[in-house]
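Deliverable D4.2, example record:
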Amino acid sequence: MPSQVVVVDSGSTDGSLALSKKAGFTVLHTHAQEFNHGATRQWALQQAKIQAQETQLNLADFGVFLTQDAFLVHPNALAQLLQAFEQPQVAAAYGRQLPQANASWLESHARSFNYPEASKTVQLQDKESLGIKTCFLSNSFAAYRLLALEAQGGFPHHVPLGEDTYIAAKLLLSGHSVSYQANASVYHSHNHNWQQDFQRMFDTGVFHTQNPWLIQTFGTANREGVKLLRSQWKSLKKQQSLHPLIALAQMLATNACKLLGYRLGLNYRYLPNAAVLKCSLHPYFWQQQK
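Output generated by the structure prediction step:
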């Protein structure tokens, strides 16, 4: 069982707030416009540490981060995730994400592409074969060795998304390893529309432009993009729920939106502020930076 559970609520109306309080969890409140992928997580972690000290609770060695839309496949998924830290060089670990029942074929494919059946542990030298995928990690279901996380200054405050990739890369550069635990799984997927796909990839382009050291160290996302397209094509040919032409149209349109969003994000500095706000999936981030 976790020694401490902290729930960050940004105005939920589904009854989860009452359930969290009834379970005895620590509930922190933030406004949606104040949410920041890195800063909010770091704030929650700091609040948990303060409460632990005030209640004389032993400070934990590891912290698990789980988003509200990720559901444990098995009750022991948290324990399975933490097994990664039996390897002393591992500073961060993430679990497998499986598509939810209503996931589209492209989203289901994305889950299998990014979260395969086999576990692995990567080190910095793996960048020669894995490229940018070396520092892949998802905070939707991830755990950290807290001393290692703190040594890197915690999660970054200045990124629109990708705080998990950012810290994974920093940990790798510091000589640590990152582990993927395929036996620790959650149901987590999104059926984004084309606008949301565009906006998310716009923010990814911004993230890469704001952190050029990532590309310089691990390489561009181009190779991974080509691999994804090839894998999607193979999956499309096995599609039975949709007419092949419809599936092909979805694949082409979705990837075109993503590519356009990413390219614009890479060049966001040349866009007017109003356009950046429209293109971003996280417009509040830009208001926080002022």
